[in-house]
Amino acid sequence: MDHARNPDLDPSLPEEPFEYSLRPQRLPEYIGQEKVKARLEIALKAALGRREVLDHVLLYGPPGLGKTTLAHVLANEMNSACKVIQAPALEKKGDLAAILTNLDDGEFLFIDEIHRLAAPIEEMLYSAMEDRKLDILIGQGPSAQTLKVDLRPFTLVGATTRAGLISKPLHDRFGMVHRLDYYTREELTVIATRSSQVLGVELAPEGAGSIARRSRGTPRIVNRLLRRCRDYAEVKGDGVITSDLADACLALHEVDDLGLEGLDRAYLEALCVKFRGGPVGVRTLAAALGESDGGALEDLVEPYLMQIGFLDRTQQGRKATEAAYGYLGLKTVPNSLFS
C-alpha cells in the first residue's frame, strides 16, 4: 500500500503563491548558509567592481533549502532580472535558443533540475556558457549551415538535487559550485519568526521553536507548517501561535518532534524489522513500501534520515543505525548490524 505523503512536509513540491512573499531580496536578509554566503559576497563585490557579470553558479542540495531564492538574491545584488525555467520544459533546441537570445545584458537565467536537461540541449549550453555564442543549425542535409549567434553577457544559475547526475562537461563550465546544507534549528526559528512578521501572524518565541524543531532542516517546510499553525490558532485559539498550540496542531498532522511522518516511520520499520537493519537496496525498500520506485525515497526520505543519524547508505545497501532502533523503541538489534 502506498503511504500518503504529507504535502506540508514535501519540500520537492513547487512553492505556493504565499511563499513568494516570504523570500528575502538581498544577501544580508538570506538566513543560513553562512559559508556559501561569504563566498558569494566576495564574488559579487568583485564582479560589481569590475563591472562584469557574475560567474555561472551551480547550487545543489536537497529540495526546499533556498536554491531558487538564492538565484533571485544574486540577481538583485547585481541589479539585474532573473528568468526562471524548469529543465524538463526545454524540449527542443529552439526553446533554449529563444531564451538565450532574448536575455538582456547581465541578466540571470535560472535552470531548475538542471540534471534533467536533454543531451542535445545541454550541449548547446557549452558554447553559450564559455564563449557567449550559440550555434544554430539552419537547413537539413548537405546544404545545412551553422550560424553563430553572439549572446549578451549573462549568468547561468543551475540548481539540482542530484549533483551526481550532472555530466562533467556541464559541471566544469560553472565558475562556482556550492552545496546548500540543512539549516540548524536556531536558523529555522529565525526564519519562522521573520515569516510570521511578513504574514502578520503573532508567533510566540516558543511557538517558533516548536515549528522549527519539526521542519526537517528545511525553510520551505517551516513556512508551510507556519501556515497550518496559523489556521489552527485562528480556529482553536485566539490567533497567537504558542508552543502548546503548535504542538497540538502538528500532532494533528502526524508530524512528530523530529519532523518525521508516516512514510519516514514506515521506511524505518521496514528497514529495521522486515530487513533486520539491512543492508538492503532502495528499490527493494520501495517495493516493500508500495512506492513506484526508489526515487521518492532517495530524494524525500533518506537525506533527512541520514542527517539525523538514523540511516547509513553504503555500497552494499541501506543500513539502519542504532539510533533508528532506539527511535522505534526496539530493544533487539541484530548482532551483525554494527560490527
From TrEMBL:
Annotated region described as Small ATPAse domain (RuvB-S), given as residue ranges: 184-254
Enzyme Commission number: 3.6.4.-
Region (Head domain (RuvB-H)): 257-339
Source domain of life: Bacteria
Residues that hold Mg(2+) according to the record: T68
Residues binding DNA, per UniProt: R313, R318
InterPro entries the UniProt entry points to: AAA+_ATPase, AAA_lid_4, DNA_helicase_Holl-junc_RuvB, P-loop_NTPase, RuvB-like_N, RuvB_wg_C, WH-like_DNA-bd_sf, WH_DNA-bd_sf
Catalyses which reaction(s): ATP + H2O = ADP + phosphate + H(+)
Keyword list, A-Z: ATP-binding, Cytoplasm, DNA damage, DNA recombination, DNA repair, DNA-binding, Helicase, Hydrolase, Nucleotide-binding
UniProt-recorded Gene Ontology molecular function terms: ATP binding; four-way junction DNA binding; four-way junction helicase activity; hydrolase activity
Residue stretches making up the AAA+ ATPase domain: 53-227
GO biological process: DNA recombination; DNA repair
EC category name: hydrolase
Family that this chain belongs to: Belongs to the RuvB family.
Subunit structure: Homohexamer. Forms an RuvA(8)-RuvB(12)-Holliday junction (HJ) complex. HJ DNA is sandwiched between 2 RuvA tetramers; dsDNA enters through RuvA and exits via RuvB. An RuvB hexamer assembles on each DNA strand where it exits the tetramer. Each RuvB hexamer is contacted by two RuvA subunits (via domain III) on 2 adjacent RuvB subunits; this complex drives branch migration. In the full resolvosome a probable DNA-RuvA(4)-RuvB(12)-RuvC(2) complex forms which resolves the HJ.
Reported function: The RuvA-RuvB-RuvC complex processes Holliday junction (HJ) DNA during genetic recombination and DNA repair, while the RuvA-RuvB complex plays an important role in the rescue of blocked DNA replication forks via replication fork reversal (RFR). RuvA specifically binds to HJ cruciform DNA, conferring on it an open structure. The RuvB hexamer acts as an ATP-dependent pump, pulling dsDNA into and through the RuvAB complex. RuvB forms 2 homohexamers on either side of HJ DNA bound by 1 or 2 RuvA tetramers; 4 subunits per hexamer contact DNA at a time.
Protein name: Holliday junction branch migration complex subunit RuvB
Gene expressing this chain: ruvB
